[in-house]
Design a protein that fits this description.
Helix content is about 30%, strand content about 30%. The strands form 3 sheets. Strands 4-1-7-8-11-12-13-14-15 form a 9-stranded mixed beta sheet, with helices on both faces. Strands 3-2-5-6 form a 4-stranded mixed beta sheet. A two-stranded antiparallel ribbon has the order 9-10. A hairpin with a 2-residue loop joins strand 5 and strand 6.
Amino acid sequence: MKITIMSHCTVDEISRDGQVVETPGGPAAYCGITAKNMKFDVDLQTRIGPDFKFKHDLENKGLFLPQDSASNNQTTRFLLKILGVDRELYLKAKCDAVELHNSDADGIIISPVFDEVSEDALDKVREDSDFLLLDPQGYLRRIDNNNKIYLEKTLLDISKITAIKTDPDEAFYLTGLREKEAMLALQKKGVKHVLYTNKQDITMLVKDRMYYLRIPNMTIGDTTGVGDIFCAAFACSYLKEKDSLWAICFAVGAAQAALETKATGLSKIPNSGAIQQNAAYLYNLVKFSQV
């Protein structure tokens, strides 16, 4: 099977405990490698600049950047200050927009980091794709005078979307509502699966049911990319099995496995065996309610 990922590869400067580590990042990398680990072919629609020194790191994990990804501008670059389970995010450089091209993939993940996938491109994919998972963070992000990222309320057409992944802040800036009410509002806007991640608590709304899962307590280290791993695991599992409940267990299991590595950057992307083991355990712990 094949999945398209529309998003930037990034250079992430991760600052934690007084040390800064520079790693490749972005949903293109995290989602792409996760999908490769699940035996998917990956069609990357991304852009990188001449300062991106990590092509071999990605290739060693089976992920190859297309020739048309090369830009003369700098790669999108972030500084991430890790503060316990919270983080501050700063934009240091922004690469060219991602150009939409035709794909024969079974599904598409759109996960912009900052303004690289146009709303016109999103609209076209919504109309033409049988499966679209959207992480809307890049449509909501703005920068202040210090280039620190903040979120702003944004009107976005999300009808005909198979799944959307949001955290509490993103859901609020899309709907003006919180928790269950925000999820219901997203569903009313036309989303089939609403995936709501609040640190270790994950909720999925599909049809008239809420499903509740929880990542077990552990010491949380670098969380960079965990949301992307979650998205790719959900998308690939759902495309393979067409089973919403198993897909959310697989996604949460992937996030758990990534956190259990205690690794920084791409090294935290888990193998499918670790994900499968966690998912099977979580499947027996799922709680649900009618809405």
